[in-house]
Design a protein that fits this description.
single chain; mainly alpha; rod-shaped
Length: about 60
C-alpha cells in the first residue's frame, strides 16, 4: 500500500510550520515562531499517526 491521507497532510502541515517558524524568526515575531513550532509539531504527529496506520494495514494484509 502507498501513502495515506494522514501522512501527506501531516508532512504538509509540518513543512508549513517550519516556514512559519522561520518567518517568525526573520521578522522577530515570537508569536509567529510559536505558532509555527506548534503547527510543525502537530504535522509531525499526524504524519507519524499516518505511518503507524499504514504499517498496521500492511501487517494485517500479510496475515491473510
Amino acid at each position: 500500500m502507498g501513502i495515506n491521507k494522514d501522512q501527506v497532510e501531516g508532512r504538509v502541515k509540518e513543512a508549513a510550520g517550519k516556514v512559519q517558524e522561520a518567518a517568525g524568526k526573520a521578522l522577530g515575531s515570537t508569536t509567529q515562531q510559536v505558532k509555527g513550532a506548534v503547527n510543525k509539531a502537530a504535522g509531525a504527529a499526524q504524519a507519524k499517526y499516518g505511518d503507524v496506520k499504514n504499517d498496521l494495514n500492511k501487517n494485517s494484509k500479510k496475515g491473510r
